[in-house]
Amino acid sequence: MNPTTNQPLLQVKGLHVSFSGKDVVHGIDFQIAAGEKLALVGESGSGKTVTALSLLRLVQNAEVTGVAKFFGAETSPQKEKARDLLAIPERELRGIRGKEIAMIFQEPMTALNALYSVGDQIAEVLELHEGLSARAAQAAAVQLLADTGIPEPARRARSFPHQLSGGQRQRAMIAMALACKPRLLLADEPTTALDVTVRAQILELLADLQRKYGMAVLLITHDLNLVRRFADRVAVMENGHIVEHGAVATVFDAPQHAYTRKLIDSHPERDVAAVAARADAAPVLEAKALRVSYPVPKPGFAGWFRKGEFIAVQGADFRIVPGETLGVVGESGSGKSTLALAALGLLKHRGELKVDGKGWAVDRASDLALRRRMQVVFQDPFSSLSPRMTVEQIVGEGLRVHAPELDTKARRARSLTALADVGLTEAQFPALLDRYPHEFSGGQRQRLAIARALIVDPQLLVLDEPTSALDVTIQKQVLGLLQRLQRERGLSYLLITHDVEVIRAMAHQVIVMKDGAILETGSVERVLDAPAHPYTQKLVAAALLE
Fold first, then answer.
1. Helix (H, G, I), strand (E, B) or coil at 510
2. Distance separating alpha carbons of residues 179 and 176, to the nearest angstrom
3. 311-342 per-position pLDDT tens digit
4. How far apart are CA 418 and CA 399, in angstroms?
């Protein structure tokens, strides 16, 4: 990589990372100047996260070779007193981790300790590296949470990770990473699973804090729009190699490598059949005045005798006809996932909710036929597929429940057909039915999840953020698959997402939710091209900035 004019903070040369003798990172070189923002871009499996983790020697069972010179506060390239992060003793490296080089991990819910409040976890860093007393560390933790824009920081410091929203958990992770004012921040997909508005807020926050503290940032991401808005330089990784690098404007305006062009061109494309707007068409799913609420404790003495009520969905009206996609868009906490769970008959509700003209009876025997007609594909296939079950057990599970008359041979044949429909065959994957989910990539696992839903021939699929955890190229493939299946089978979709571009590519009708209420509804063209409500305008504007 061409040297920058600024003083390097980190120089990496000949970095190799291998597992059991097989290289996954092949001798890459790059450097980051003090105060610079470098983005490392590539699909899952390209080696970008392993590269970042190996700098702090956090990759288990990996063989790491090469040189990673880190020039701390009192070193410079001229004096050649840099520390080689790959060669210094573990005890010395522990003093660098969190203090001089900090990391924001991709999924804060797994990175944060569920047994400790976020304030205690931030204070622990300050006590360990800064030597603060417990009281001083707690006060500093509250201030850090305030700096990241979390409302009521003193109260939130006492909260546990599960009590915070996704955006608040990510802000808590950022506060922890910045506790000791590090010189280098490694940010691994810091905004992947966040709403467009929250993503924009986190991005602005990182940029403000980067300027405030003068940090260098190594951003690990597959989101090219994020790179365009945030980074100074970009390095593109494919299969463990850096295939292109340079200034962001240069690489985006005139990409030289075919892989870079492929990433830049991977936008969701609309390829859905038109659906006739017939008022007399029998809906696959219909809701009128749908209301979902949860009991919550009341504060003070009154809470001993009576519960309060939190309304998650209020007065929702919608209908989905055969072959139609209804998109539900909104930020985290808007009520869209609660609406989906109610539609699936998994939550008690008030109002009218009918699947193919019949209501949920909340009784297993009565509801079994409806469940065959309505299946679901979840957001994260890694957590929604059991790691202890084979592909045959996962995909064929629905047949055991809904078609118990089929023998093992018939179930296997149906499973192979369903897998072929989603693009997975034994020609590609020998002994396909005997494999486990961890043997597949993220996009392939999502195809398994779709095959599992399709095998019982449903009329309606509930798609709960089906592509938010996927790379841009894989997202495009999965959306194309869903569009093809809808055309071929006449499927209807209830699409839950925070991604406006996915709604634009997939939906016929769209409803916009906030705080449990539907603020705007209509055709996707009308709502997204001419939004009437200020909140919809905000969502669309945030998506355009992406």
1. strand
2. 5
3. 889 999 999 999 999 999 988 778 888 999 99
4. 12
Query: 452 or 61: whose pLDDT is higher?
Result: 452
- The Cα-based distances of 138 to 16, 103, 129, 164, 424 in angstroms read 40, 21, 14, 18, 52
Cα→Cα distances 73→131, 183, 435, 482, Å: 19, 8, 50, 52
Q: pLDDT for 24-66, tens place per residue?
A: 899 999 999 988 999 999 887 788 888 999 999 998 888 999 9
Segment holding 517, helix H or strand E: strand 517-523
Q: If DSSP codes are grouped into helix, strand and coil, which group holds residue 178? A: coil
Per-residue pLDDT tens digits for 164-219: 876 678 788 888 888 888 899 998 888 766 666 667 777 787 888 888 888 899 99
Domains within the chain, CATH numbers bracketed:
108-181 (no CATH), 285-384+460-545 (3.40.50.300)
Query: CA 253 to CA 257: how far, in whole Å?
Result: 12
Structure tokens given for 360:
């949920």
User: What is the C-alpha to C-alpha distance for residues 284 and 460, in angstroms, rounded to an integer?
Assistant: 7
Examine the pLDDT at 142 and tell me if it is beyond 90. Answer: yes
Nearest to residue 38, comparing CAs of 257, 212, 245, 259?
245
- Inter-residue contact 518 to 317 (CB < 8 Å): yes
Residue pair 495/326 in contact (Cβ under 8 Å)? The answer is: yes
pLDDT at 301: 67
CA-wise closest residue to 193 among 382, 450, 387, 51: 382
User: How confident is residue 1, by pLDDT bands cut at 50, 70 and 90?
Assistant: very low
Q: What is the mean pLDDT of residues 516-540?
A: 93
Asked if 149 contacts 171 with a C-beta cutoff of 8 angstroms, the reply is yes
List, in sequence order, every residue forming a beta bridge with 494; answer none if it has no partner: 326, 462
HSE-up of 520 (CA within 13 Å, CB side)?
Answer: 21
For strand 216-221 and strand 184-188, is the pairing parallel, antiparallel, or unpaired?
parallel
In whole angstroms, give the CA distance from residue 172 to residue 155: 13
